[in-house]
Structure formats: C-alpha cells, structure tokens
Amino acid sequence: MTTTATPTQPQPIKPATPAPVYNPKSESATAKRIKSTIFHLVALALVVMVLYPAIWMIASSFKPNSEIGGANNALWSNNFSFDNFATAMDGIGGVSTLTFFTNSLILAVGAVVGTVLSASISAYAFARINFPGRGLFFGMMIATLLLPFHVVIIPQYIVFQQLGLVDTYVPLLIGKFLAADAFFVFLMVQFMRGLPAELDEAARIDGAGHARIFGSIMLPLMKPALISTSIFSFIWSWNDFLGPLLYLNTPEKYPLPLALRLFVDQTQSSDYGAMIAMSVLALLPVLVFFLVFQRYIVEGVSTQGLKG
Question: Would you say the pTM of this structure is higher than 0.70?
Fold first, then answer.
C-alpha cells in the first residue's frame, strides 16, 4: 500500500520587528518637561513662602484676639467675624481712622509731587546742561546714597526744632521738594541720557529754551521714569514710621504707621486684632496704586533697551 505525502503549505515569512530607534529629540523634550515641572514647583513653593505673611495677616484680621498668637495656630478660624474691622474704623485715642488715612494721604501725595518735580528738574540739569563742576556735583549727590539716614537725624532735628517746625509736616516734606532723594535723581538722569540728544538740538534750532525743552519734550518722554518714581515715593512715604515718630507729637497729625502703634499697649491688653485689621486697610491704597501703574514700570525697563 502506497501512501501519498501531502504537500505542506509554505508558512508566510513574518517581518522582523524593527529595533527601537534612539530619538535624542524625544529624550530632550522629556528632560525639558521634567526640568520645567521642577522649576515651577520650586517657584510655587517660594511664592507661598513669600506670600504667607500677607495671607496670615489677612486671615488673622478676621480672628478674635484670643486666637491671635495663642495656642491655636490655625491659619483660618472658625469664629469668622468683622469685629476687628469695626473697631479699627472707630479709630483710637479719640481720633478717627479717617483722620489717620487723610494724614497719610497728605504726606504721600506731597512726597510724590515734591519728588517728581524736584528730581526731574535736577536730573535735566545734570543730563542736558553743561555747567562747570557738573561731574563733581553729580558725584557728590551720588555719594549721599552712602550716608546712612541715622547719621543726620540729630542735626536735622536740632535745625527744625530751632526753626519751630517740629510737630508739623514741613520736616517730612521739605526734602522732597529740594531733590534730597538722590536715588530718584540718579534714576531720571540715567533715563534722560538714553534719550536722543538730537531732540534738544532740533528744539534749540526752533528757538526753544531749556524750560520749553524740559516741559514739552523731556517730560512726555519721561513718563515711565516719572511713574516709577511716583510709585516708589508713594510707597516709601506711606509706610514711613521713623520720620513721623521723630517730628510729630500730636495724635491728630499721626499717619497710619503711628496710628497702628497706638493699638499696642504694654501696660494693658493690646488689641492686636484691630491693629491687624487696620494694617489690611492700610495695605489696600498701596496695592491699588501699584496695580494701576505697574505697567509703566515694565514699560520703563523695556524702554531702557532701546537706544538711538
């Protein structure tokens, strides 16, 4: 008996699985994403650390005094209340909070006006007018930045006391109108030096003098520097504590920094809740002022890179 062999069907040849191809671009993109994630996490942690005091202050303004600085260290309180703000708005020492706000506003606005006027005029003289000894006087002005304020406290106080100006706002504002803040003069001088000198030459050809050049050409172009000066001058004057403490004796003339100190009494119970609530209220004008004009600071910084 003969058997017939069944022919076998040929098996299809499977294609070989390609080996993984090394892609340096893919690995680079993954490394960049990891680095970006780590960077943002670290930045977020730093932001939380920087903002935590402000967050604590806002949260504590709604706490009762018994929970501020006590055994309960929770950030948020279950006894949420606006009593601290009501107490803060009533004022202290027989003086209303509106009076303290008004005094601070007078000092801050006066400081802004005086600093902007005197610093811009002085900066124009140093940057655009050639006069004998300009470099020497400019160097002497910059040297005053190295002189600590505490060195001149006693001589200044003696001068103002002999002039009968103690317990007035004159000692706090007169330096603003006399370009005593060398930092702002230097800031504006550097900004003016970045403006083309051809503008002055063209104006002189048309018959314009220094007053016309300064008012019609320089000031409009200096808006970023002027706004930056106004912001910092307003904040520094609004938060100034040492100056009013030295020269003001009448509570009706106190600005907010001194008014906040009145809530802390070392002999009786201190109302820390009202003090923190007033601190939050005092922070609002500075925050609004900065948010409104902050874009001009960025504009000023970006303008410094455009020369010619």
Answer: yes
- pLDDT at residue 159 is higher than 90: yes
Euclidean distance between CA atoms 308 and 306, whole angstroms? 7
Q: Which two tokens stand for residue 300?
A: 């000023």
DSSP one-letter code for 214: I
Long-range contacts of 56-65 (CB under 8 A, 24+ apart): 57/276, 57/279, 57/280, 58/280, 60/273, 60/276, 61/85, 61/273, 61/276, 61/277, 61/279, 61/280, 63/273, 64/273, 65/269, 65/271, 65/272, 65/273
The answer to whether residue 128 scores a pLDDT higher than 50 is: yes
Q: What SS3 class is residue 241? A: coil
Give me the count of residues in the chain: 308
**Does residue 88 contact residue 282 with C-beta atoms inside 8 Å?**
no
Alpha-carbon gap, residue 226 to 107, rounded angstroms? 18
| Contact between residue 224 and residue 303 where contact means Cβ atoms under 8 Å apart | yes
Residue 195 has pLDDT above 90, yes or no: no
Rounded distance, CA 88 to CA 57, Å?
14
Using an 8 Å Cβ cutoff, are 61 and 53 in contact?
Answer: no
Residue range 89-105: average pLDDT?
87
Say yes or no to pLDDT of 161 above 90. yes
pLDDT at 307: 46
Of the chain, the percentage scoring pLDDT greater than 90 comes to: 27
Contacts of 280 by beta carbon, 8 Å cutoff, 6+ apart: 57, 58, 61
CB 199 within 8 A of CB 212: no
172 touches 243 (CB < 8 A): yes
Helix (H, G, I), strand (E, B) or coil at 35: helix
| Range 68-90 average pLDDT | 75
Distances (CA, A) of 87 to 83, 92, 94, 276: 6, 9, 13, 11
